[in-house]
Design a protein that fits this description.
43% helix; 20 strands; binds adenosine-5'-diphosphate; 6-stranded antiparallel beta sheet; alpha+beta
Length: 513
């Protein structure tokens, strides 16, 4: 019989031992040794089992000797010995005299004499992940108090075995993940919550010249910009952003927060694409500029023909067609030149603009069209001025493009809702309509230049479209430090949301726009 105080003492020592090292065999070896000494057993064994109940290792211990780890096939005991019985029944067993216990199987190569034994399972969530056995050459050496103590120790050891299994599993998964990252053709970094680089794939080491890991992100060249960009991404709950490196490269940086791993950052080098885009813009800008003057001359002469000459009916139709098409070309050219200016960052001196007034004015401008199409227009604007620092012309372009699209694509009798919401630091402009809705595949391309959704046309055939309106909205919004996106469902409608940083709140009386 083991006294209660001794039991408590040994349980305490075992608990302490289990936290001393991550090496499972070492920890369990020491725990087994403690158990053998505390119970007075002559030998003790700890069998570690895999998911199928096969013995993977056996740790052996006897008093005054260090423990040892044996890897041998003792499946025989597991299939029909006392150990197997404990494994199947998931509770401990006491054999006070093994010679009369039919569950006992003597191993053929065993040189030890055993008369009494006890075995307890290492049980974790209905799974036996190991067995602890104690042996003595004297019969009836062990009693229920030994069994209870061994069960207490085994339940603690089971937690350690489970933790070690999970640790190995996570380590294995992490290594496979790192192998995958290493095969990726772009720099990938793993960054912990303290902004330290804890992993850099081969491409990151080469391309960003990272020589070692476990260093602060700020310690690498470009780390500062990257750190700022990551902060922005986290604040905005977005998952990618462009970062300009000091050597002229441009990366599209995307992040993914992975539990237990930190943040995985992928840097896609888009320098080449940016150069192509800039060349294309330059080309379009030059052509547009060169077309502007001849077009003005064509329109001027067409106006003269229309007003000063007595034209036949066919002649009138031809001149009207010339003017119509030339006007459409002028709109396209002006939008292209506008876009080029916005992208080049050419802007009037920024001023404090009241978006509430701008929205009001734009919606009023479209009242004729909305009346004609019997649209219900709901304006939801705050009482106070919503102030944005920028150009009122550019902000009007943003609102106007969104409202004109809603009017253009929403069929007769539809509903358009324009709202402004202001919080501490941002102003949200939302234009919602009950138009045709935009398919998910098209939504990601919507803000690209010249993109038009196939099969979505203005509900009035005379209204022309250039496919540039939303690119202008995006360029202006991003230039002002904001963002724009769409949520839409085919057959239900679309909502375009544009968020701009607000300047401050002031009463409508001191506003400017
Ligand atoms: P545009 O209207 O001149 O074609 P935009 O860049 O403003 O150019 O819009 C691009 C395309 O997005 C449009 O051609 C249209 O297919 C689609 N679109 C824009 N706004 C809406 C909307 N409110 N509802 C449905 N489709 C829209």
């Amino acid at each position: 019989m083991i006294p209660y105080a001794a039991t408590a003492d040994i349980i305490y020592k075992v608990a302490r031992q289990l936290n001393t090292s991550l090496d499972l065999e070492e920890v369990l070896g020491k725990v087994l040794h403690l158990t053998v000494e505390a119970t007075g057993a002559e030998r003790g064994s700890l069998f570690l089992l895999d998911d199928e109940g096969h013995v993977t290792r056996q740790i052996q211990s006897s008093p005054h000797k260090p423990y040892k780890v044996v890897r041998r096939n003792i499946q025989e005991v597991m299939s029909h010995g006392l150990a197997g019985w404990v494994y199947r029944h998931q509770h401990g067993a006491l054999a006070t005299d093994v010679t009369t216990d039919e569950r006992w199987v003597q191993l053929p190569d065993s040189t030890h004499e055993t008369r009494s034994a006890l075995i307890v399972p290492l049980l974790r969530q209905d799974t036996v992940n190991g067995l602890l056995s104690l042996h003595h050459s004297q019969k009836r050496f062990f009693d229920e108090s030994h069994l209870a103590l061994a069960a207490g120790i085994a339940s603690q050891a089971a937690v350690a075995v489970e933790n070690a299994r999970l640790f190995t599993q996570i380590k294995g998964e992490r290594e496979s993940l790192y192998m995958l990252f290493n095969a990726m053709p772009m720099p990938v970094l793993e960054i912990d919550t303290e902004s330290n680089i804890i992993f850099a794939n081969q491409m990151a080491r080469q391309s960003l010249q990272i020589k070692e890991v476990n260093i602060p992100l700020m310690a690498i060249e470009g780390g500062n910009q990257l750190n700022l960009a990551l902060g922005k991404l986290h604040r905005r709950a977005e998952n990618h952003i462009e970062v300009h490196w000091s050597d002229g490269r441009v990366f599209n940086v995307s992040i993914n927060d992975v539990p237990q791993l930190g943040t995985v950052v992928a840097l896609d080098d888009i320098t080449h694409l940016k150069e192509l885009d800039s060349m294309k813009s330059q080309f379009v800008q030059t052509v547009s500029h060169d077309l502007k003057n001849p077009l003005a001359i064509i329109m001027g002469f067409a106006e003269v023909l229309k007003t000063d000459l007595d034209l036949s009916e066919t002649g009138q139709t031809c001149v009207d067609s010339i003017l119509n098409n030339a006007t459409q070309m002028r709109v396209l050219i002006e939008e292209l030149l506008d876009l080029a200016e916005i992208e080049a960052g050419i802007d009037d001196t920024p001023e404090s603009c009241n978006l509430t007034n701008i929205v009001n004015a734009v919606v009023t401008n479209y009242s004729l069209q909305t009346k004609k199409k019997k649209h219900t227009v709901v304006l939801d604007l705050p009482q106070e001025a919503c102030l944005v620092q920028g150009s009122s012309v550019r902000l009007s372009q943003v609102v106007s493009n969104l409202v004109s699209n809603a009017v253009k694509y929403t069929p007769n009798d539809g509903k358009i809702n324009v709202s402004l919401i202001q919080n501490d630091s941002e102003i949200w402009l939302q234009v919602a309509d009950t138009g045709p809705g935009i398919p998910p595949a098209a939504q990601s391309q919507l803000f690209q230049k010249f993109y038009r959704v196939p099969d979505i046309h203005a509900s009035d055939s005379y209204v022309k479209s250039t496919g540039l309106g939303l690119s202008i909205v995006k360029a202006i919004t991003e230039d002002y430090g904001g963002r724009v996106w769409v949520t839409s469902e085919v057959g239900v409608g679309s909502t375009f949301a544009c968020v701009l940083p607000c300047k401050s709140t002031m009463s409508t009386s001191d506003e400017t726009d």
